[in-house]
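Example 9 (inverse folding). The structure is encoded as follows.
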């Protein structure tokens, strides 16, 4: 498990990578705001590491910047042809600067464009707030541990270990936990 200081460094790195990628493309916050539907204020907070963005926000930013979401996490150059990724290569981020307070691990790091992105998301109902998100692509969820409700559009699913969900990620969606619930699940999503 990563220490709070290491998580802080990773969060700052992600914020810096987002800002650098936007600047390298010569794009303004307003242009990114228009492409993502996110406010300029929120984007500024993300780039200045005041807010930890949830996966949906990272997916929207990656689409707008035309990069794979892994671009925001990658700190080491990796073999583009790799098919094996050891657990030691994962980067855990605990979103302490967000009212959502989730943790996630990018399972397949690297800058190479991939049609799918896979992460493990960890939530604690005591710290997590419900907030619907939407982003391009499709999403698959496999519950690993714990229990939660997961809202997709106007439907709510009770999700237990080994249950799966598959849906169009453009439909507003979000996990919803009671204060006494914890959940850990695999999420795989496409970028478009």
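The amino acid assigned to each position is listed next.
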């Amino acid at each position: 498990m990563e220490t709070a200081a290491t998580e802080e460094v990773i969060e700052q790195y992600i914020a810096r990578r987002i800002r650098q990628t936007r600047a390298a493309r010569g794009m303004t916050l307003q242009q990114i705001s228009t492409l993502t539907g996110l406010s300029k204020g929120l984007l500024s907070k993300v780039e200045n590491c005041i807010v930890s963005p949830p996966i949906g926000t990272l997916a929207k930013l990656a689409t707008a910047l035309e990069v794979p979401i892994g671009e925001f996490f990658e700190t080491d150059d990796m073999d583009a042809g790799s098919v094996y990724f050891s657990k030691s290569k994962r980067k855990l981020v605990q979103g302490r600067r967000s009212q959502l307070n989730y943790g996630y691990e990018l399972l397949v790091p690297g800058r190479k464009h991939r049609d799918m992105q896979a992460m493990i998301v960890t939530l604690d109902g005591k710290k997590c707030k419900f907030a619907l998100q939407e982003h391009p692509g499709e999403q698959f969820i496999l519950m690993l541990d714990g229990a939660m409700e997961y809202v997709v559009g106007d439907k709510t699913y009770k999700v237990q270990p080994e249950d799966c969900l598959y849906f169009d990620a453009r439909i507003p969606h979000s996990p919803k936990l009671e204060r006494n619930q914890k959940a850990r699940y695999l999420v795989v999503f496409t970028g478009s």
